[in-house]
Each structure stands twice: as C-alpha cells, then as structure tokens.
Design a protein that fits this description.
Largest sheet: 7 strands, mixed
Low-confidence stretches: none
Number of helices: 14
Bound molecules: pyridoxal-5'-phosphate
Shape: globular
Number of strands: 17
Distance between the termini: 36 Å
Mean pLDDT: 98
Strand order of the largest sheet: 4-12-11-10-7-5-6
Length: 396
C-alpha cells in the first residue's frame, strides 16, 4: 500500500467536513457478500453500501455493463436520447404499477421530484390550494430542505429554518391520526412501507390499505418512498406488492444500480401527465453509465432469482434472530422483512457490538445505541447468516 490507514484517517480529519463518525476500518475491495480492508482481512458484509449493493459487490455482469458503457459514452445530458435510460425506463415500467418514470441521482432527489409532481398535479386539476404533504413521525425522506422537512424528525430540521411550508407529521401505523390530519389543503400522503433509517418499523398491511382508501376517497395522492425497500430488499421487487395496494407515485434509489448513484420516481399516467417539457430536469440524472448498471442489476435480480432468495433466506434470517431473542434477555425485539431486519437491545450496547463484530470480520450497522440493523446483499447465504448468528450469540 502506498498510503497507510493512519495517513488516510489524518487526511480525512483535516480535509473533510465533520459530518460522519466513521467506523475504524478502511475497505479497499469487495466481491459478492465479502469486503476486504487494507490489511487483507476479510469481512462478511451485512450493510451492502447502505442497502445499495443488492447484487453483491462488483458483480461480474454489472461490472461488464459499467465497463462497456463507460468505454462508449459517459454523459451527453437530457437534451438528447440515450439508449440505457430508455431501456431502463421500459424495464421498470413493465415490472411495476407505473406508466412513466423520471431519473435523478439520489433518494432525496427522487422524493423532492415526487413532491413537486404531486403539487403540480393538484395545480393542473385546479386545486392549487392542496399543497400539504403528510408524512409519518420517525420517517426518513432525505437531506435536502424539503425532504428534511418531510422527514419525521422535526428537531433535525430545526437548525435550518426557515423551512419549506406545507408539511405535517402523524404517528406511523395510526390510521385515526392520519384520518384527522387529512384536510382541504392535503395534496399527498408520503410513507415508507418499512421505516428504515429510524430503526426498521414495518407498516401494517391494514394501515397501508386504509391509507389507499383515504387517498381514493379524498382525491389525494399516495406516495410510497421505496428508496430503501425497493429493488428486492423485502422479498418483493417493490414492497407495495406485499401489501396488495398500489401507490400513485413511488420513489426508488438505493439498490437500483448496484451501488452507482441513481434515483427515480415513477407514476401512473394520470399523475405523470402533470409534468410537461421544462417542468423538471437534471444534468446527470439517468446518465448512460448508472442506467446501464441498473439494467444489469435488474437482469441479475431476475436471472439469479435474487428476490425469491430474499423471501426464503430472509425468513430464515428472521427466525434465527427470533431464536436469539428467545435465548437472550438482552434482546427486546426483532423487526423487519426480507433482508431489511433489526434487533432492538435492552441496553445501550449497539455501538460496542458493531465494533466487536467488525473485529470479528462482520459488518453490521447500528442505529443509535440500541438498534442493530442488517441490510445484506440479496445474494447472502444461510451459512453467512449462521456465522453472524454464532457471533451474536457469543457477544450479546
Ligand atoms: C436513504 C433514503 C433516502 C435518501 O436517499 P439519498 O440517496 O441518501 O438521498 C430517502 N428515503 C429513504 C426511505 C431512504 O432510506
């Protein structure tokens, strides 16, 4: 190694803004569900780049698609047609409820665009007074001013006042509170099927079905933020499939291009037609390389039956976490679905456990002091899960 970890740590401390409390490890290589650090030590990855590397690290087919496209054309802007963007749009539309899609670069941008589309739709209908977007407490929708305001943690938005207007928060999974919050100014209800960033809280089936009914009855839009739950993460290509409902607008991002930055919002034609030329746009969004990577990602998901793998192995994973809860009084709750799982601890030990697991070659995420979160690549095996469970059994 030309540069040491100590030097990197020092430079990071000197040159980067202080926004991240990074774990003490320097990853230099990945393959499948494995990562390697600068010393050559191997890790099993239960974070997958914050749920992004759904096909595993550096999947051969994804790598080939990126290499092929990068050698041919990297960027021309959306003033021109490009092949990967249009083919990706077709694939997503043919595999979802939606009729049209817009590509951007991240989850926050996808939610920002979805909210703009919802407000424009109401305006086109002659109901410009409907601009309010209702979201859930404990939700996470992004870091831009509008998506941070939408996020259900008002104290996090506080330092950035003044904030955009027209947002209201209600407790999650509480249909009465939602019903009471809907009024003549309501434009849309935006929810995550599973609240990921705040600790993996799963929406009840009845709740989302009731939300759908309220939206239909009141003539307002249902936006599902599937930035984390989409792309197979829950054992369905999109989580809404498991709820027996369809949203009006859906946002996706994290897993879409196996780790390359991309985001998208999708809508039914009736809603999508509110946007005409010039109403929304982006320089990089839907660029040839991320779109080629996303096409390859979807191809791998289908060819390798990865979504089915999540459904069956995810069930196994959850059962094993359930066993741990039975055996250990330090575990309070097991939550989640598919490969989006969490373990809530009785005591503030999550941070310490994550460091202990890292020493043992296991990459796990903690949310605050009490929650361990697991977001492995969709190809992770039962044996790898068993290795994690053996270690959790010893450490908890
Ligand atoms: C990660 C996440 C976002 C934000 O995505 P970025 O790409 O970080 O902007 C939005 N919504 C949900 C549900 C997420 O998990």
């Amino acid at each position: 190694m030309a540069i040491t970890f100590e030097e990197i740590k020092e430079k990071e401390k000197t040159y980067l803004m202080r926004t991240y409390a990074r774990k003490p490890v320097l990853f230099v290589r990945g393959f499948g569900s494995r990562l390697w650090d600068d010393t050559g030590k191997e890790y099993i990855d239960f974070v997958s780049g914050l749920g992004a590397c759904v096909t595993g690290h550096v999947h051969g087919e994804v790598l080939a698609a990126i290499a092929r496209q990068s050698a041919q054309l990297i960027q021309v802007s959306n003033w021109y047609f490009t092949i990967p963007q249009v083919l990706l749009a077709e694939t997503l539309i043919k595999n979802s409820f939606a009729d049209r899609v817009f590509f951007c670069n991240s989850g926050a941008e996808a939610n920002e665009g979805a909210m703009k589309l919802a407000r424009k739709y109401m305006r086109e209908k002659g109901e410009a007074e409907r601009y309010e977007i209702i979201t859930a407490l404990r939700s996470f929708h992004g870091r831009t001013l509008a998506t941070l305001t939408a996020t259900g943690a008002p104290e996090k938005a506080e330092p950035y006042k003044p904030l955009p207007e027209g947002f209201k928060h209600v407790p999650f999974n509480d249909i009465r509170a939602l019903r009471e919050a809907v009024g003549s100014r309501t434009c849309a209800i935006m929810l995550e099927p599973i609240q990921g960033e705040s600790g993996v809280y799963v929406a009840e089936k009845k709740y989302l079905q009731e939300v759908r009914k309220i939206c239909d009855r009141e003539g307002i839009l249902f936006i599902l933020d599937e930035v984390q739950t989409g792309m197979g993460r829950t054992g369905f290509l999109f989580a809404y499939e498991g709820y027996g409902i369809e949203p009006d607008i859906m946002t996706i991002a994290k897993g879409l291009a196996s780790g390359l930055p991309i985001g998208a919002f999708l809508a039914r034609e009736e809603v999508a037609k509110a946007f005409g030329p010039g109403d929304h746009g982006t320089t990089f969004g839907g660029g040839p390389v991320p779109c080629a990577a996303a096409l390859a990602t979807l191809d791998v998901l289908f060819q390798e039956n990865l979504v089915e793998n999540v459904a069956t192995v995810g069930q196994y994973f959850k059962e094993r976490l359930g066993e741990l809860k039975e055996r250990k009084s330090g575990v309070v709750e097991v939550r989640g679905m598919g490969f989006m799982l969490a373990l809530e601890l009785k005591e503030e030990r999550a941070e310490e456990l994550v460091l202990r697991l890292l020493e043992r070659g296991l990459v796990v995420n903690n949310i605050g002091g009490k929650i361990l979160r697991f977001l492995p690549p969709l190809s992770i095996s039962k044996r790898e899960i068993d290795t994690l469970m053996d270690n959790l059994m010893e450490l908890i």
